[in-house]
Amino acid sequence: AVALGMTSPEAVKHEIIANFEVILLLMFMVAGIFFMKSLLLFVFTKLLVNVRSKIALSLTFSVLAAVLSAFLDALTVTAVIISVGVGFYSVYHKVASGRRYHHNDHDHADDESVHDHHKEDLQRFRGFLRSLLMHGAVGTALGGVMTLVGEPQNLLIAEKAGWNFMEFFWIMAPVSIPVFFAGLITVVVVEKLKICGYGDELPEDVYKILSDYDKHETAKRTKSQVAQLWVQAVAGLFLVIALALHLAPVGLIGLSIIILQTALNGVTEEHQIGHAFEEAMPFTSLLVVFFAIVAVIHDQHLFQPIIDWVFMQSREAQPLIMFFANGLLSVISDNVFVATVYINEVKAALDAGKIDREHFELLAISVNTGTNLPSVATPNGQAAFLFLLTSAIAPLIRLSYGKMVWMALPYTIVMTTVAAICVSNL
User: Fold this and answer.
1) Mean local confidence (pLDDT), 170-190
2) Beta-carbon neighbour count of residue 139 at 10 Å?
3) Side-chain half-sphere of 38: how many Cα atoms within 13 Å?
4) Are 32 and 254 in contact, with CB atoms under 8 Å apart?
């Protein structure tokens, strides 16, 4: 686009600098949480072994994913849930294949080697993991819409509006809180009615294997490993307080989390620290490409007709139209990109005096909820969903693109409807 003269390197740089906090968030916050993985794995494993009711477990997974996403970042939380799934699957597969398990030995035997009487267990276990991972992934969307760190675009919106962590939370609450509870009710309904691929229980044999494995792991946990878990828990507490009090830009808080955890847990080699940045950097690069496209849209005034049309509608109807315009685009393309374009246009309208501050806030709520909630419909919309679809666990539990869309359907309908009702009543 730059080579074709559709925008200039200066315009791209301007977009990057304007959204620099988001780049800091992705670079440092996601890497910071990498060093908390063992604590999060520990928590999720204990949950799976100790909560026997599938509905209670699904609800816990969903709530935990939502709470973590509100304070960390939906991508990071999905990464943790994926590692939990891969861990459980490989433990079961090794035992079912008649071999002893060894920690970190991630080879997956061919399904043929699994004895016939394990075949049915394996099918049910796959279904069980599939539904848990989907509840978790949707949970990240339920929590991700609430705070300015939940999704990358939230920070862009908060920055344009000048909101801090708590302001953002309270301004979004009239939409995000009802949607959160509607999401939890959906968890119970789909599990109870066993619709859209939900409802598989954890087979008894599999539970026994996982429970034995957890006891085995607990027995061999050393004092230094326990101390590391405590350090991670304290760093997590610091993270929550620092975000709530807005002590520094989000990315810098992430960097302090990296320093605290590596220093206190003895991670001193550069290549050990390097792994933490692997997950976030491709997405950070992608975001910079988005900003180049945003610069093209800005310079060529591509979205001007849509925005003008929205502003021609009655003032009361504008938030709802904005919500659906964002929602529809987010389903087919990436929600970060859509939000960036729309919030820029709305901010330009405010600066030009076309709308007042109060109306700007209503439209900002519409952009945030519109890009975050209907986008669960397909893996295209949510980075966390795409991450799950392209991860190592998806082929193991037979989670395809179509399956994901089908399993997300009840959530898409409920979340979009409830959010639309709330937006129209703002």
Assistant:
1) 97
2) 32
3) 16
4) yes
Q: Are 327 and 416 in contact (CB under 8 A)?
A: yes
**pLDDT at 111 (0 to 100):** 52
Task: Give the Cα separation of 204 and 44 in Å (integer).
Answer: 19
Both tokens assigned to 380 = 């295209």
Task: Give the whole-number percent of the chain exceeding pLDDT 90.
Answer: 52
| Global pTM value | 0.84
- CB proximity list for 131: less than 8 A, separation 6 or greater: 58, 191, 197, 198, 199, 200, 407
Q: Which of 300, 299, 380, 305 is nearest to 338 (CA)?
A: 380
Can you state the percent helix, strand and coil of the chain, rounding each to 5? 75, 0, 25
Over residues 227-237, the mean pLDDT reads: 94
Q: Average the pLDDT over each of 87-91, 95-99, 205-209, 307-311 and give the range with the smallest value.
A: 95-99
Burial of 306 (C-beta count, 10 Å sphere; 0-12/13-18/19+): middle
The pLDDT assigned to 25 comes to 83
Q: Quote the tokens at residue 54.
A: 């599938």
Please check whether residue 424 is in contact with residue 320, taking contact to mean a CB–CB distance below 8 angstroms.
yes
Position 101 confidence tier, pLDDT thresholds 50, 70, 90: very low
Separation between Cα atoms, residue 145 and residue 324, nearest integer Å: 16
Both tokens of 255, joined, read 């960097």
Q: How confident is the model at residue 97 (pLDDT cuts 50, 70, 90)?
A: confident
Contacts of 11 (CB under 8 A, 6+ apart): 295, 298, 299
What pLDDT was estimated at residue 319? Answer: 95
For tokens 């989907």, what's the residue? Answer: 134
Separation between Cα atoms, residue 149 and residue 187, nearest integer Å: 24
**Interatomic CA distance for residues 15 and 296, integer angstroms:** 10
Instruction: Return contacts of 275-282, CB within 8 angstroms, 24+ apart.
Output: 275/34, 276/31, 276/32, 276/34, 276/35, 277/27, 277/31, 279/30, 279/31, 279/34, 279/75, 279/76, 279/79, 280/26, 280/27, 280/30, 280/31, 280/75, 281/27
In the predicted model, is pLDDT for residue 113 greater than 80? no
3-state secondary structure of 258: helix
What is the mean pLDDT of the segment spanning 380-391? Answer: 84
